[in-house]
Write a structure and sequence with these properties.
Layout: E1 5-8, H1 10-14, H2 24-35, E2 41-46, H3 59-65, E3 73-77, H4 81-89, E4 94-100, H5 103-110, H6 114-130, E5 135-140, E6 144-145, E7 149-150, H7 153-165, E8 170-174, H8 182-192, E9 201-204, H9 212-221, E10 226-229, H10 249-258, H11 267-280
Parallel strand pairs: 1-2, 1-10, 2-3, 3-4, 4-5, 5-8, 8-9, 9-10
Antiparallel strand pairs: 6-7
Helix pairs in contact: 2-3, 2-11, 7-8, 8-9
This protein binds 3-hydroxy-3-methylglutaryl-coenzyme A and magnesium ion.
Magnesium ion (MG) binds at residues 13, 174, 204, 206, 235, 246.
Length: 284
């Protein structure tokens, strides 16, 4: 029995920001190493437009080439019905939709207003659920937007409520550019917890400001027990200038253990995956 659930997002949120195309075999090798670590869920691909994110164009090949481990849910990001169709054909176990709390990032990342994106994602969620797939919702820019600056908690609540109404099984709260401070994460959670229980919320922190683990601690205090992280601290978003790595899974696991939370992740397997992930990083 584990106390915390770690969702490994490295193969998607980590690799998507690396400019040089990584060979598919290396992505498969990374997923296979991660499959040995004990994660309940690994986000392995995204079926977004290859014109927007060329690095993620080979999602179907990653899913068909990797070795599935029983008990692991392999998921992918789906931006629209076309992406969902590709994800279903690739036999994902679940999908994730992603809306921004702020207008600037929404426009830059998916070329839509927040409201239009909510309509679109509602269709994607309905179709995914009819295909029997659980739907995770990401809210990006929960405290700061690279285009609009500080984001108000009420803007986060608006997207969380929309995702809840769509039947998302879990909602991940993303500090996309890593500018969130513990007090502002707390203010955001104060608002969000009025509309969604902690058990269905995940903390998704980035390492930019060096406060990711402090933000994890705040989220723990608020009762959150699901965290996203990326092996090797890979990551960032190509449409979020300034976003650096996601919180490194290695750091998260050690930190949680020190705090007395069992994650069920094998440290040995994680070390191997970490060593390999670091070879995939582009020039710093
Ligand atoms: P658009 O240009 O407004 O729409 O893009 P479009 O429908 O005109 O599509 C453009 C082209 O892509 C067309 O091709 C489409 O057919 C094609 P053309 O007609 O020019 O030849 N296309 C597709 N091809 C394959 N699969 C598809 C697909 N959709 C369209 N699914 C769109 C709108 C939403 C598609 C685009 O903006 C997009 O893909 N954006 C995704 C950007 C992205 O992946 N960002 C990173 C993920 S979000 C993130 O990292 C934050 C998060 O991790 C949280 C955090 O870290 O805090 C979640
Ligand atoms: Mg991220």
């Amino acid at each position: 029995m584990t106390d915390v659930r770690i969702v490994e997002v490295g193969p998607r949120d980590g690799l998507q920001n690396i400019a040089a195309l990584i060979p598919t075999e290396k992505k498969i090798a990374l997923v296979d190493l991660l499959s040995k670590c004990g994660f309940p869920e690994i986000e392995v691909a995204s079926f977004v437009s290859p014109k927007w994110v060329p690095q993620m164009a080979d999602g179907a090949e990653v899913l068909s080439g990797m070795t599935r481990t029983a008990g692991v849910r392999y998921t992918a990001l789906t931006p629209n019905l076309r992406g969902l169709k590709r994800a279903v054909e690739a036999k994902v176990d679940g999908v994730a939709i992603f809306a921004s709390a702020s207008e600037g990032f929404s426009k830059a990342n998916i070329n839509k207003s927040v409201e239009d994106s909510i309509h679109l994602f509602s269709e994607v969620a309905t179709e995914a659920q009819s295909a029997g797939l659980p739907v995770r919702g990401y809210v990006s820019c929960v405290t700061d937007c690279p285009y609009d600056g500080p984001v108000s908690p009420s803007d986060v609540v608006r997207v969380v409520e929309a995702f809840a109404a769509m039947g998302c099984t879990e909602i991940s709260l993303g500090d996309t550019i890593g500018q969130g401070t513990p007090d502002r994460i707390a203010a955001m959670l104060d608002a969000v917890l009025l509309v969604m229980p902690a058990a269905q919320l995940a903390g998704h922190f980035h390492a930019t400001n060096g406060l990711a683990l402090d933000n994890v601690d705040v989220a723990l205090e608020y009762g959150l027990r699901i965290f996203d992280s990326a092996i090797g601290g890979l990551g960032g978003c190509p449409y979020a200038p300034g976003a650096q790595g996601n919180l490194a899974t290695e750091d998260l696991v050690v930190h949680l253990e020190k705090r007395g939370f069992e994650s069920g992740i094998s440290q040995d397997a994680l070390a191997q995956a970490s060593q390999f992930a670091k070879t995939l990083k582009g020039p710093e």
